[in-house]
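Supplementary Methods S3. Input chains for the assembly prediction are listed below.
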Amino acid sequence: MLKLQKLTKTYKTGDQALKAVDLDVPSGQVLALIGPSGAGKSTLIRCINRLVEPTSGSVMLGDVDLTKLGAAALRRERRRMGMIFQEYALVERLTVMENVLSGRLGYVGFWRSLTRRYPQSDVDEAFRLLDRVGLVHMADKRADELSGGQRQRVGICRALIQNPALLLVDEPTASLDPKTSRQIMRLICELCAERGLAAIINIHDVALAQMFVQRVIGLRFGEIVYDGSPNGLTPDKLTEIYGEEDWEATIENVEGEEVEAAE
Amino acid sequence: MTDVTHRELDDLIGRRWRRPPLVKRTWLRWTLVIGGVLYLIAAIASVEVNWSRVYEGLERGWAFVLAFTSPDFTSRGDAIWTGMVESIVMTVAASVVGILISIPIALGAARNIAPLPVYMICRGIIAVSRALQEIIVAILLVAIFGFGPLAGFLTLSFATIGFLSKLLAEDIEAMDRSQAEAIRATGARWGQWIDYGVTPQVLPRLIGLSIYRVDINFRESAILGLVGAGGIGATLNTAFDRYEYDTAAAILILIIVIVMALEYISGIVRAKVQ
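Predicted structure tokens for the full assembly:
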């Protein structure tokens, strides 16, 4: 469904963030993108919806090459790609409801959005989503009154109300505590399964990624150095992605948790 | 490797630590300091004071201060009233017009929103507006439009643009990029992006600056009268010319009260919109 071909990004400073990345994501697949800071994870997902302009290569979403689109067509295609951000990126002074409804901006006209008169179906869907993530009572609160976990749930609603085919998720748990991190990852993966969405999740926490996804991509210096199942991430592989370090603790931890979960 | 760091550390232990100075070269640093002090002394010494004139003037100054104990609101009541109304009309009209024009210019003058050519033009407008002091603009506009509040209104509108656009543009440039980026990622068009991603971030500042500018415009309207651009300043000027200090005191008291009231209101409003 999503196909990256020789996707390259060279920043003006001359830094090559992505070096001819090829990647094929089938419908409904949730994959984790891991790699050290500066490996190009954020750049990769931002090149897909062109918040960052790729230097060369193509991004095929279905039959459409996103890199060739003009401004209006790009806006239409962005509606099919929901994005969830590190640090939530909610508009803090808007209410929870406005933040969720902002996911419909690609569908409604300027005056409707300016006067906050959204179609009833959008409002209903917003309430349904907020109820699904357990925040329906918070609809009229301002976004900056919420806790981190709550904000990220609102961020998830904003992405889902776009009715996307693909979720681009950038470090969803970077500033959350371990328990909330798991809850958020679980929620994202459950919602993807319910709606048959594909997702690319940038994530620092290898153990957390291994718990929830079917496929892991390892990125190092803008190149894919690992593409496989979470179980295949051996200490050697992790060393290849991140560099020398003792990986036993990380991996054992995960296996222990899986046993726990199975029990 | 460890050996080397240890030896370096041993060298450092027991030595005094000072913050590295701003100017590294010692002689240059002291030349700048001593030169600065000498210039200050010479500058103050060069101001001539005619002490006998000061002695005479003290009396007049004292009369002026005393007038504040017996301000005369009534004998020129009509003139004060007309002047105040004119000043307030000028202030409100110039603030509204100035703010409305400032907002698009501020958007254009924010580098993170506007393309370079638009940015250059808008920054140019701001630079011109800020470079020309109100009094100079007022003198020019009085020459064009004649005496009266029209010149004052136009002057204040013009000055508001430079002030508000610059400060608002700086606030837009300092906004949180990720919030705006999130709105762009939804497929919002430009207007919606401004409405949802940018406005909520800068609105409290815009409101705060606007109220502050109303305050400044009112005070300026008292000055502009001195060059014939209408408002309470004209009345004030006349009072001074006729040595009617009690009337002048009454006018100044009114100005002070109104400015303080505006200050008080702005405090309340700013707390509300934060």
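The mean pLDDT of chain B is 90. Residues 76-273 of chain B form a domain with the MetI-like fold fold (CATH 1.10.3720.10).
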